[in-house]
Amino acid sequence: MLKHGILGLLNYQNMTGYEIMEVFRDSLQFFWNAQTSQIYRELQGLEKMGWVTKTVVPQQGKPDKNVYAVNEAGREELLKWLADDRLDISTKVPVLMKVFFMGERSREENLTYFKRLKKECEEFQKSLAVVPQYIEGYSSFVEDKEKTLYWQMTVDYGYRSMQTYIDWAQSCIEKLECV
After folding, report:
1. Measured between alpha carbons, how far is 56 from 66 in angstroms, rounded to an integer?
2. How does DSSP classify residue 129?
3. Where are the domains of the chain?
């Protein structure tokens, strides 16, 4: 999935691995985690698959810069992936696996857990407040501004998802406090 995210970003503009990581940090990281090393590893794989091309740009006093561009084969792969209409709705939710067995711990420990979960989700939700500014900034990468509507949809999902966690954690706290 990371490779398709990188192809999608390169579809907007040619970038270095560092620039990809910056854009990832400002946008995709709100719903997909990737380390810098993973991005560089994926770029090497994408180049081997013939989906991106690398141009080495010499620099004075610094290491040469590698600029990656999606090519026609990479764009075809991106569109093929986007056309795959299978819904990737995962039923694997690690927090629920843990909560299912929390009866083995004390109520106080579990109250602390749910309070922390609620607080972290509230903080994450607040961090989404800057994303519309990022969308505005990155909108210059695309000619068709309608594409940014889909970026906004992902932010909306993230906000709503965090609100669901917050509401659920509060409900769990209330249940545990009434026992």
Report:
1. 5
2. G
3. 2-83, 94-178
Concatenated DSSP letters for 51-71? SEEEEEE--SSSPPEEEEEE-
pTM across the whole model: 0.74
Predicted local confidence at residue 136, as pLDDT: 83
CA dihedral 158, 162, 168, 171 (to 10 degrees): -150
pLDDT at 90 over 80: no
Task: Give the pLDDT confidence of 20-42 residue by residue, as tens digits.
Answer: 999 888 888 777 888 999 999 99
Q: Which CATH class is domain 2-83?
A: mainly alpha
Q: What's the count of helices (H) and strands (E) in the chain, helices before strands?
A: 8, 3
Structure tokens belonging to residue 92: 């694997």
What single letter denotes the amino acid at residue 28? L
Residue carrying the six token digits 């961090």: 127
Radius of gyration of the chain from its Cα atoms, rounded to whole angstroms: 20
Are 137 and 79 within 8 A, CB to CB? no
Q: Kindly report the CA angle at 111 between 122 and 178, in degrees rounded to 5?
A: 110
Q: Give dist(CA 143, CA 11) in Å, integer.
A: 12
Q: Looking at mean pLDDT, say which of 18-27, 82-91, 120-129 comes out highest.
A: 120-129
